[in-house]
Amino acid sequence: MIPSLLAREIRRGVDDYLKTTFPVTSPYFGGVVEEFLAREAALAQGPYVSVGLPFSPGQRAGEFFPSVPLGYRPYLHQERAFARLAHPRGRSTVIATGTGSGKTECFLWPVLDYCLQRRGERGVKALFIYPMNALASDQAQRTARAIHNNPELRGRVTAGLYVGSDPEDRLDQPVKAMAPDRAIT
User: Fold this and answer.
1) Among 35, 89, 112, 164, which residue carries the largest CB count within 10 Å?
2) Digit-coded pLDDT (tens) for 130-158
């Protein structure tokens, strides 16, 4: 959506919210709120600009993980991450790139491929650790979607979410009850 139109819609929504949630009942203040909200920069001021960063397309043709087809052509930074993380001895990798550039996919696909290749081995294969439960929940949904939408992974790799909010006596139960192949987010 165009940023200026989005800003206008948000402002209109905030105006409506303020007027309906906090109606002015005193005749003395009648019209004061409307006058304030009618001012151009009363609640927020522009300009509103949205800049999408161009991410370099990958250069390699073909799949990085033959057993787990990506279904898309990765960006260059994803290709570089795949090469490091899918290496037989996997190498430490820092991924620093813009919002919406596919940082999650940089590590998700190598991990899912690893889990699939070792599906006969019992135990947890990977841990994804996040600083906030909301982020962990979002990433768990993305992981579940990636598994479900890929026929090679569906039913063969499992993932779970453990946020540590259970009482102390139940902390180990989710891990003990896990299926043999699991990635925890």
Assistant:
1) 112
2) 888 888 999 999 999 999 999 999 999 99
